[in-house]
Amino acid sequence: MSGETLTVKVAYRSYNPSAVKKACIPTCFGGKINTTLSFTQDSHALGKHHVVVVAMLGNGESSSPSNTPNFPATLDYRDCVHAQYELLTKHLGIKELDVVEGFSMGGQQAYYWASLYPNYVKKAIVVCGSAKTSGHNYAFLEGPKTALITSVDYADGSYKSKGVQPLRGLRAFGRAYCAWLTSGAWYRERLWERALGYKSIENYIKEQSEASFAEWDAEDLLLLACMWQAGDIGTTRQDGDYMKALESISANVLVMPARTDQYFQVADSETEMKYLKHAQLAVIDTAWGHVAGGGGSEEDTEWMSTRIRDFLG
Q: What whole-number distance in Å separates Cα of residue 11 and Cα of residue 215?
């Protein structure tokens, strides 16, 4: 919300468009439209909804530094949600949302949706997200960001003029990010081997975390990480008070943190529950940490789907 005006492209995928009930799912950090857990299988909670999965600005599918000349150097969740609202109302003709659901940065966008468009959103589901990025969460992100921007091949941001991709920096980003995705219990239980089939932790780091981030554009990653760090629904109000912003939400909210999530922690969700007027807390008991909310574990996904179905009624 820098005051700059830019015509943007918003990428999306529509599931079951003839359904009467409408749902929107914004993507998460590191997520693409087709990798987003959408709960659209017939047996899942949104199987009878018209579900629109929307790529948030900056993710490389919607307008981003990687595909849009002169893209702004900073991005705000409000920019993403306003663009999504334009897509849903003017392009798709959706008059109201029965539910907006999101995981991680998608969960933060769900909070922004409920705060910015109270007359448009009936229910919101926040999975492993928060209304305000905590200091601990902010500090965690400084690690992978710094690993990327101080790499030799990033070259202080001049890598593009040299016609190269900063693969060394991107892999360093993935390596620094890796341990935070799951939990200590996940490693103790050797789920990298038992559940995913990797022969060693090093094998898992290289083939999973390093490889996935190596596919990204560096500027897209950094832009999204900075937007994540700045997350605070208090910015939807003149006074900047995120607690009052929570109190003003009229939608019914399902808050679903994971017990072992290392950066969107249960304690933060419990604090938010003190201010939300119409909310339920459902903690995902899992060893999978943060990724439990994004479909990392089939068992957790089934549990979430059941809980979401009960919430939607």
A: 19
